[in-house]
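ugh ok fine here u go
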Amino acid sequence: MKYRKKPVVIDAWKANDIEEDTAIPEWVFTAFSDRRIGETGKEGFDYYVNTLEGKMYFSVCDYLVRGVDGELYAVKKSIFEKTYESVE
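structure:
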């Protein structure tokens, strides 16, 4: 059997330098405030996000995604750009 993923609209934010980004969406700001997202000292990564599956690490230029149930997860830039297109 073959399946096709249902089209859903998600919110996404391309991670930038937090200090310089003036267009941080409210849901990202709230997640930082709630400590669901934070900066990390882990080599090779700039940030972490607490997901349903555990802590995920991501870097500047990767995407932070808010799913249909409000869950957060990180997606590498190369995968995001192959998988998603803008609806705006």
